[in-house]
């Protein structure tokens, strides 16, 4: 007896989610490669004979002091350009909550619980590692809790051409929820002093931005200055400026108005994602990932409880938390994985979620403010590489399995088509677990797309 489709984890996606998934995969794949390029350039530059030029450029200050915006180039990249990244995150969150996978409890519960588990377990591992050793510091507990969606999706796109779309959507939705939780952590735990007059000014700008968006008054020369003003006021308030980007994205309408083909949030996400993935995040990586790598620095990081906690949290804590949380959801709801999926698929995705990078580097700088930052960055880089390597190995193995399955079923389909033609049979779409009736003949499977399986039975026609 087949289980009800609603009781299966990672089942078929909605058409809207399919379209969004395809768009995100195309953009984030290229963005991940650019992010990797920015990281490599930063590491090579910082460890070359021209490292002094790199540090001078990163630490060069400019901007109006009267507006509290006399920042270094590195800070402009961290506080300014990442606001674009978080604006896209806000648009994603609004769309997912209103019209995506998070709008229904049945589909939202798995990525939400998995994201919480994928943040709680790394934090616990980090704290335990630092509490049990001399010289540890619990200040960086939030560093290993983040997932870098651009890197994770780029790796998945390279190694998982045959993986089910539902698995890809699970990683994306989990990363979106992960970003939301990271935003809450940044806003709550890394705000030392709040200047409420500037915070109110920022909130008023954000509210006006949302009002104009709802009225479809979308002239760039009005909305962009409003967005910049809300960011500047947020920065002056003491709350991390990237929160303004999230808030601006969250007030954009996510449902299409009458006569609109796409909702404004979806349209703007499509427009701004290339800027975020192709410019903002790679430039941030260029100025955040430049650390000196030597035998001495590696030895220092290896013996530092902070670096150990970050590494173990990302490489072990992330997959452990995600898998355990998913198992708990499956046990409580008495649900199984969707047909054809294996828990190895979930484990592989869990390791990819251990690629922390962008948000982990940001939280690392906020946590230690110059002290131990180099060790934290090195741990994040090494952990991201290790998590990507392990996750890639698992998913490449699973990808070959799905490819073989497709090839075998394609061969079976050709044979069954010949049988159907020879005996005057017709194909009926039925469930594979459904018992065959006495009139039904040989069972077969056909793949209409590489990642979509349909089961059919051949039924002999009456004379």
Describe the protein's architecture and organization.
With 463 residues, the chain is mainly α. The chain has two domains: 5-190 and 240-402, Na+/H+ antiporter like domain (Na+/H+ antiporter like fold), CATH 1.20.1530.10; 404-460, no CATH class. It has 15 helices and seven strands. The protein has helices spanning 15-46, 51-58, 73-99, 105-131, 149-159, 165-189, 196-214, 220-237, 242-250, 264-288, 295-302, 305-333, 343-352, 357-368, 373-423, and strands at residues 8-9, 61-62, 71-72, 336-337, 425-429, 440-449, 452-460. The strands form three sheets. It has a three-stranded antiparallel sheet, with helices on one face. Strands 1-4 form a two-stranded parallel sheet. Helix 1 crosses helix 5 (149-159), helix 3 runs parallel beside helix 9 (242-250) and helix 4 packs antiparallel against helix 12. The longest helix is centred in the C-terminal third of the chain and has 51 residues, at 373-423. Residues 1-6 and 426-463 have low confidence and may be disordered. Na(+)/H(+) antiporter that extrudes sodium in exchange for external protons. It catalyses: Na(+)(in) + 2 H(+)(out) = Na(+)(out) + 2 H(+)(in). Pfam families: Na_H_antiport_1.
